[in-house]
Specification:
Layout lengths: L1 H10 L5 E4 L12 H15 L8 H12 L2 H7 L6 H10 L10 H9 L3 E5 L4 H10 L8 E3 L1 H4 L31 H6 L18 H10 L7 E5 L2 H9 L3 E5 L10 E3 L5 H4 L2 H13 L4 H8 L1
Helix pairs in contact: 2-5, 3-4
The structure holds magnesium ion.
The site of magnesium ion (MG) has 6 residues, from loops.
Length: about 300
């Protein structure tokens, strides 16, 4: 039995799974999609939710900082809107043409002998478009996206309400006054608690835990790649191995830092080395026997 245990350990690759954020991780921030996305969010807040222009920068910062995404924050402070409408407005007009096929990354990913899964806060249409433009669609086993973690939401606005009227200056009918988040943070000794959001998204540890459960991932045997320091720090707290992408400076919570995802092989050769070991042993013909005995 002792021999059997050692044997299984030797043939096992170091990691079972690689979990990748999408935007600004699989392609560089310098493509400018993030800036465009931010502009679209601001336009949505003014045009669709009727929020005053002058409040937008502070509101965006506070919502993003406290809720993970501006969208999650808007829902927390009682703005109601259709999620698909939000996503198509915010992502629908992005300059996707800036994303080009990436054959280098494609062959790196395809040569990695472990499970590869996308984990993004974005919606599935956006994820599919980005992966298609980069020509990486078939490099991943699956995509965990907004809809995966927020499957049951129904807007409280009925289909018959004139939410999207022409001119798009419509304010949704609300019985509840939105929570004044700017006012909240302008009080030096604010005692009231921030309202909770119904949206599940990174960097909440709950979102990461749920994603791990859905994809049946063991965090101890998974490498998590993301360009966001706070996502990486949450990932570390739930037990993932972490790689901060987009910078060569490793910050707290990041086990590794990569200036570009293209550096993955130089920075993490063990992802490939582990497989070589396993193949060598596999050729000995003993793997199948071990598997059938322990199954
Ligand atoms: Mg990102």
């Amino acid at each position: 039995m002792e021999f059997e245990g050692r044997y299984r350990q030797a043939q096992r690759p170091k990691y079972d799974c690689l979990l990748f954020d999408l935007d600004d991780t699989l392609y560089p921030l310098s493509y400018g999609l993030a800036i465009e996305c931010r502009k679209n969010i601001e336009d949505y807040m003014v045009q669709k939710l009727g929020i005053e222009d002058r409040k937008i920068p502070d509101m965006c910062n506070l919502l993003y900082k406290n809720y993970g995404t501006t969208m999650a924050g808007l829902r927390a402070i009682s703005y109601d809107f259709d999620y698909d409408d939000y996503h198509s407005f915010v992502h629908g007009r992005l300059p996707y043409e800036k994303l080009k096929p990436d054959p280098v990354l494609r062959s790196l990913l395809l040569s990695l002998p472990v499970r590869k899964i996308i984990f993004t806060n974005a919606d599935k249409v956006h994820a599919a478009k980005v992966l298609s433009r980069l020509e990486l669609e078939d490099c991943f086993e699956g995509v965990i996206c907004f809809e995966t973690l927020n499957p049951t939401y129904k807007s409280t606005i009925s289909d018959h309400d004139d939410f999207e009227v022409e001119g798009s200056k419509a304010t949704p009918t609300r019985s509840i006054q939105p929570f004044d988040i700017i006012g909240h943070f302008s009080q030096p000794n604010a005692v009231s608690e921030l309202p909770k959001t119904p949206i599940v998204c990174k960097p909440s540890e709950d979102a990461i835990d749920r994603a791990l459960k859905i994809a049946n991932i063991d965090p101890q045997r998974t490498m998590f790649f993301d360009d966001s320091v706070r996502n990486i720090q949450s990932g570390k707290r739930v037990g993932l191995h972490t790689v901060l992408v987009g910078t060569s400076h490793r910050t707290k919570g990041a086990d590794y830092a990569l200036e570009s995802i293209h550096n993955i092989k130089e920075a993490l050769p063990e992802l490939w080395e582990a497989d070589e070991k396993s193949v060598k042993i596999g050729y000995s013909g003993k793997v199948a026997i071990e598997t059938s005995v322990t199954a």
